Structure formats: structure tokens, C-alpha cells
């Protein structure tokens, strides 16, 4: 099946081996990321997604914070070394997008539309997921590799302090990106009959 949009999202794969051999400038990539997030739909057009875009030394600082925090979780030296190496592999990239949801926006919607109150946090998760997917696909379409990580909430306090993040912003995911330095693993798909039901 040939479809321009499907062709683009087919390029989006998890790339763990990333580097700093990127031709695009931070300014260009910032515009790309901003555009992807701004064009991502949200419930009630709430636009609750927020992002902190880190490049170069600031990006490396984030992964150093994660690495330091994870030391307290290590069971032994071997696991600590493996975790440290993994964080270093993320730091080897050129940047990281920290995705947040603004809880003040969500609370405001809950107050404004009490009948839907319990759904707004769920819909916010949908919004951030779409923004993450859109950003990830945009980066891949531009030739960059990326992987989505989730080291929240263990580093939330440090992130808010280091980059002066508003208290209402809740960290949801981290997208590390850079030049493609290794191939994506082969992706297997479950049988369509298990996943889909079609009625005509």
C-alpha cells in the first residue's frame, strides 16, 4: 500500500545508537520540534503539552542527572556499570526533548467541564503521546535517529530545579535524538486477526 503519510511513519523506528554527527542546526531542529508539537491535536484544543528542548552540554547534563540518580537503585557494581553505559549512550546524541503536560490547564478544564473531569488526565496522556509521536516522526523524516525514554518521576525534582520548570508541568517522557549510528532492530508484528476486527 502506497500512502505518503504511511511512508513517513514507516521511517519512525527506535534508534538507540545515536551520535552528534548532525548537519541540522539547533535552531532548525528547534523549529521542527516546535512545529510538530504545535500541530499535534489535543482534547478541547487544550494545547496542554509542553516541551523543554536540550542541546549539547545541556542535553548531556540531563543524562548525567539521570545517571547519578540511578546509582542509588543499582543492586551491584555490574548493574551500576551497565546503567551508566546506557545513560552515556543517550548522552552521545545531540539533544533531548523533555515532554511535559501542564496540570494547571488540565485542572482548569476539569473545573470548567465537571462532567468530563475524570477524563481530562486520560486525554492529556493522549495529547502528549501524539506530540511525542509527531516529534519522533518529524526527526526521523529529517534523517535523525531517536528513542523514547521514561525516567520520570525519579528525576522530576532535579529537572524542575535545574531548568526552572513551572511546578504545574508534569514530566511524561524524554525523546533523545542524534545522528543514526546503528540500525534499528527488526520489528515483528502480531497477526492482524488478533489485533483488528472489521465489520462491513
TrEMBL record:
It is found in: Cytoplasm. It holds the Pfam family Nitroreductase. Residues 9-178 form the Nitroreductase domain. Its main location: cytoplasm. SUPFAM superfamilies: FMN-dependent nitroreductase-like (SSF55469). It comes from the Bacteria. Keywords: Cytoplasm, Oxidoreductase. Gene3D superfamilies: NADH Oxidase. InterPro entries: Frm2/Hbn1, Nitroreductase, Nitroreductase-like. GO terms for cellular component: cytoplasm. The keyword Transcription regulation does not apply. GO terms for biological process: cellular response to oxidative stress. One of its GO terms (molecular function) is oxidoreductase activity. PANTHER family: FATTY ACID REPRESSION MUTANT PROTEIN 2-RELATED. This is Nitroreductase domain-containing protein.
